[in-house]
């Protein structure tokens, strides 16, 4: 009898409020898009099962509940992340300029997670989280969202500019997406899952 192990991968999604983080997740997980702006959702994360080669993978995708406006997401949000997805809106320059902050904030938060307690004298199992803080090897992915808006006429960040930023950060993969039109959402999340799996 063969036993197939299911791998749980934690993915966190960061970026300015309004860039479409929740919409991208909804499109990917529920195949739904809503024009209505909801700053909060009920759950901390949503899950999606997928198969990568012969591996069964559960992606656990963590969304913010609007606290990104205050940049106070808390340690639990960041802890144990296997991949960090950064999102900006190609029509809003400020959301692109903020990427630097989100990138730094992620690395700061994961490197300041408290060390796992020494449990040699205890029978209580302790979950040991890998420290993912190596900025050169930790998998980030960048999504430039809302490319559908005004047929592309209102975009202010070029693909070239975005790719230059990614190259400077150690060749972060880049996808242009539309949560509204379901453009490139599945390929982006497949890349995210593979990156998270490689980091596992
Ligand atoms: P979040 O704050 O980053 O989670 O952003 P939301 O997912 O709540 O989206 C903010 C607003 O942008 C909502 O009104 C969405 O309907 C809209 N939106 C999100 N993604 C897209 C997109 O790809 N195209 C368009 N036209 N609107 C989008
Ligand atoms: Mg949201």
From TrEMBL:
Compartment(s) where it occurs, according to its Swiss-Prot or TrEMBL record: Cell membrane
The keyword Nucleus is annotated on this UniProt entry: no
Name of the protein this chain belongs to: Ras-related protein Rab7
Organism annotation: Linum tenue
Annotated function: Protein transport. Probably involved in vesicular traffic.
Keyword Lipoprotein: yes
Top-level taxon of origin: Eukaryota
GO biological process terms on file: protein transport
One Pfam family per UniProt: Ras
CDD domains: Rab7 (cd01862)
Record family assignment: Belongs to the small GTPase superfamily. Rab family.
GO molecular function: GTP binding; GTPase activity
